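EI: anyone free to look at a 166-residue chain?
SC: sure, send it
EI:
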Amino acid sequence: ALLYACGNSLARQEWRKRGFTLIYLILSFICPQFLLFTPLVLYGILREQRYVPAAALGVLCIWRYGPVSPAVVCLTAVGSMVAGLLQYQTGRYLKLEEKFRKTRDDGEEKNLLMKEKNQSILEKQDYEIYTATLRERNRIAREIHDNVGHMLSRAILMVGAMKAVH
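SC: here you go
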């Protein structure tokens, strides 16, 4: 059972996991003492969401031990229920962990986008300030040019008029 649990958790390919399960079921049929470790094996089977082998293991356990020892069947049934409950809780935990990771990754992605947008807004703001400064300088230059030019022209004309009068 320990070899089954380790092999099943380390195997990457689905066919290997199914092979481990099939070998354990055959060994359990041949040697009923293997059925004492049904909860451990059931936990591994349920982790992969393979319900047909889990049902076959339960039927095999009841068929092999039922007439001989009801106490062993009850103990195995309670252990199997605990294994099923643990697997259910583990599945819920893994789903929550995946949701947490996705939320955290989405948050990081949004933070990066916000930093980029803030940088873009700051650059645009600097550009707008620079453009406004240039526009104001040009307006002041035109105003000075127009006012000073008119005043100088008027002063020259007045000086010329005063010379002509005196």
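EI: The first helix runs from residue 2 to 10.
SC: 👍
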